[in-house]
Inverse folding.
């Protein structure tokens, strides 16, 4: 047992992946407030600060900075499937996660242009995401320290898809009607924007998640989770 009752799994069992899935699902509610002794920050809400995203497409160019963004609903995720491969040197893992409802709010700043129209915006935003599915892929190598074996994650990739997204934003334009039109435009064409922004957002998120994952994995021996 580890981490306040989380499940440990038998490494050679044919049901190892099912056991890991159950262990992760069991831990999610416990991660809501974080686990400081394992270097795990609060999961719900989850807050990021000062994240900058650049977007280019045709006549649209914008640099968007999320001054603060707080996400709600991650602790209610469903772990749908886990796939692992383990050898003498390391472990590769894929985890399919489904979140029926996510929401986020915060403050933003944006600069750019739309055709000949300059954008110099800042304000508040709120967004609601429905049916978000992600596949998390990570690979790690085993390290031995003080007689214990740890898993150091060397690569991390996350593939996200969103069923639906609704956004509310203030401050895009000072004129309320223009601001309303801009928000309606975003809500209508968000799949196009989202698809274009995936490489940019992954470049931001993946190093953050890799660092946080290793902060946990290099503190808790893997041989206590897989025996």
């Amino acid at each position: 047992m580890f981490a306040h009752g989380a499940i440990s799994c038998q490494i050679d069992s044919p049901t190892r992946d099912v056991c890991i899935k159950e262990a992760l699902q069991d831990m999610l509610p416990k991660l809501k407030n974080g686990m400081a002794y394992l270097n795990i920050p609060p999961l719900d809400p989850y807050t990021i600060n000062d994240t900058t995203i650049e977007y280019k497409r045709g006549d649209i160019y914008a640099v968007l900075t999320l001054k603060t963004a707080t996400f709600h609903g991650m602790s209610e995720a469903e772990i749908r499937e886990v796939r692992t491969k383990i050898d003498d040197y390391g472990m590769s893992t894929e985890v399919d996660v489904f979140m029926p409802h996510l929401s986020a709010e915060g403050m933003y700043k944006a600069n750019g242009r739309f055709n000949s129209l300059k954008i110099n915006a800042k304000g508040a935003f709120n967004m609601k995401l429905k049916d978000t599915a992600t596949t998390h892929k990570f690979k790690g190598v085993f390290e031995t320290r003080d007689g214990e074996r740890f898993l150091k994650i060397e690569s991390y990739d996350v593939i996200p898809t969103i069923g639906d997204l609704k956004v509310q934003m203030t401050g895009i334009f000072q004129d309320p009607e223009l601001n309303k039109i801009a928000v309606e435009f975003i809500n209508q064409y968000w799949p196009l924007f989202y698809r274009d922004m995936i490489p940019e957002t992954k470049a931001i998120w993946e190093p953050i998640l890799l660092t946080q994952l290793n902060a946990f994995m290099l503190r808790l021996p893997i041989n206590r989770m897989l025996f």
User: Anything to note?
Assistant: The first strand starts at residue 46 and ends at 57. The domain at 47-218 is CATH 3.15.10.30 (Bactericidal permeability-increasing protein; domain 1). Residues 176-217 form the longest helix (42 residues). Residues 39 and 215 are 6 Å apart (CA to CA).
